[in-house]
Amino acid sequence: MIRSSYHTDRPARGRAPTRGPPGGAEKGSPATTGLPHHVRMTNTRPATVRTSPPFAADEATMLGAWLDFHRATLALKCEGLGAEQLRERACPPSSLSLLGLVRHMAEVERHWFREVLAGQELDPSGRYWTEEFPDGDFDLVDGADPVADTAAWQAEVAFARSAVEGLPLDTVGAGRWRDNEVTLRWILVHMIEEYARHNGHADLLRERIDGSTGE
After folding, report:
1. CB within 10 Å: which end of the chain, N or C, has fewer?
2. In this structure, is residue 30 part of a structural domain?
């Protein structure tokens, strides 16, 4: 399993890029930034909702736009697939699956925006992982509900957006990460890196599942 050392206090494991040059809304898609409010897990592919970041903007706008772009990219990679396809570990021996990536990013959003930025005290166990199953977000997808897990991810994204609204990038989180103070700027940059890395994995998984390629 490839895992970042920065997203939680779990033992670290970490990397791959994603494609997606800027240049406006996706062809045939509504010009809406960010994660679709409802991702249909079906065998027909709905219209993708994703907008490329602006070429010129202030730093906060640019970082937020790139993060939303990558959130939407992961949603796009999952669209149109059935539950079993989303659970499929398409690149053995890795336990990675598209649903596992969705669950993982729900954990990552939860950790950085609730625990570190907002200072919320959360259960030491994550939503999906425990000390017994430190990779439960990836490893325990058999029988998992893609609709419920996607809704949980969307809820964390919605909280993150509300938590950062109006905050200066130099804002220091109310929580800590391994006794370190962390700024909102660092969190946003790290989240972009985390999504970009896993969207590279999602590219490979989706191609192995049904041959689909693209941005």
Report:
1. N
2. no
